[in-house]
Amino acid sequence: MHNSARGSHNPYGPNDPAEAGPSINRHLTPTLQMARRTPLQRPQSTYSDTGSRGRSPSGYNSPSPNMRAPSAHSSRRSYDSRPLSYIDLQNVSYPQAPPPPIAMDNSQLRSAVGNNASLLSMGKTLAMYRENVKKMNDPETQYAFAIFLIKCAQELGLGQGADASRKSSTKGGRDHDSPYIEGPQSSPEELLREAKQILQKLADRSYPFAQYYLADGYASGLFNKGKEDYGTAFPLFVAASKHGHAESGYRAALCYEFGWGCRKDPAKAVQFYRQSASKNHPGSMTRLGRACLSGDLGMNKYREGLKWLNRGTESADMQYNAAPYHLGLLYETGYGDDVFRDEAYAAKLFTQAADLGHAEASYRMGDAYEHGKLCCPRDPALSVHFYTGAAQRGHAGAMMALCAWYMVGAEPVLEKDENEAYEWARQAAECGLTKAEYAVGYFTEMGIGCRRDPLEANVWYVKAAEAGDQRAKQRLAAIRLAASGGAPGDAVPKDGSKLKKSGSGNEKTGQNDKDCIVM
Question: 3-class secondary structure for 300-332?
Fold first, then answer.
């Protein structure tokens, strides 16, 4: 009934996997290497981020709201204070906060040792915790201690080689003001091994938070020297999901969908997505909604897809922020019998996703405020604001848009700055954007925002030409012609494509109202 109504407006591909500042800064030169965007983004590792082995461009230092808070009672193996029925397990809603990790400044110890707790060394802190953990059989305390060990290992330079281990290894001793003897400080690998053993014991006792953390550690490579081990992680995700852990259910569904550690099984994937979505998990709701609308995973249910996308939008958070963006795509053009075109509402949804950190939504709003799309007024300040949010999350197109703004300026919001323009173009080129590679070549050849360097310019032209950029090919042909004694103008493209700069101040002018850079 609805298939004919949707027609060719389906915004989703058949195999598209599930996804995972208030003021304007006038000097926005990127200082960090932006990660390349990959078509398949695996879920971010909730706790076991080890720097360069992280799953996404930016990490979150605060605990992820992915797990249910456990009861203070520890007499039962279940993580609640009473036996859970099947109905109870099906109605555990997302978010599920884990036991809070221990603060590294030792502030939680001051009630035991006084105001000098912050002066305790890491070795003495570990000794104190070990003594207390040995005296109790509380899974929450043991879990918190395991997390503390991992945090200590990361602070000591986990994964940075033997130099960090030697530097962290110090002789033990006794502080006469402290009742705890500090032995030789453990290496990061030893701390990680101890934490893994504790988590494994808790996982064997069906403690779901430990099962999830252990699975996440294997999947991210934390426990395998950077090598992903979904074969070990998958059964742990499944086990934790059976104890009502929503995030584990979502991760198990991804494993079934993409064959990570198991055989691909779309039906099983849908089963686990539904299980997690029933607990209000925004990632699962988004994936179910998109699957119903696109027809993949064996699903083709128009109204159910809209229901899940709307619920995912209501529950979207910083980690799972894609639902409002995808719902906005539907309202931008209209979709089927129940979604009418409403550009203003689409802009509202894009803004919601952008505020939660969705790079593509930020880019779309930057473009809308630049060109007056989606019922938005032309507003250079908001355009730069949203472009900046997208660029700082690695969006190459937004980097080039900022390059364009800096080339012309937008007084009084943004001063013209060719150095900033070059830096953003360089970042976009390093992300692999072809037109940015050509632009950097042109900047370098002409000395715009940087020192003139014909040899380096030629390198960028070659990169762009190899990626299929016709202007780069024409520019290389002109350079070769000039080197052989010909007239360089003979090789200039007939359409006169080149870097244009406007002096109007508030708007970028030229073809398509934005050609202050090579388009």
Answer: CCHHHHHHHHHHHHHHCCCCCCCHHHHHHHHHH
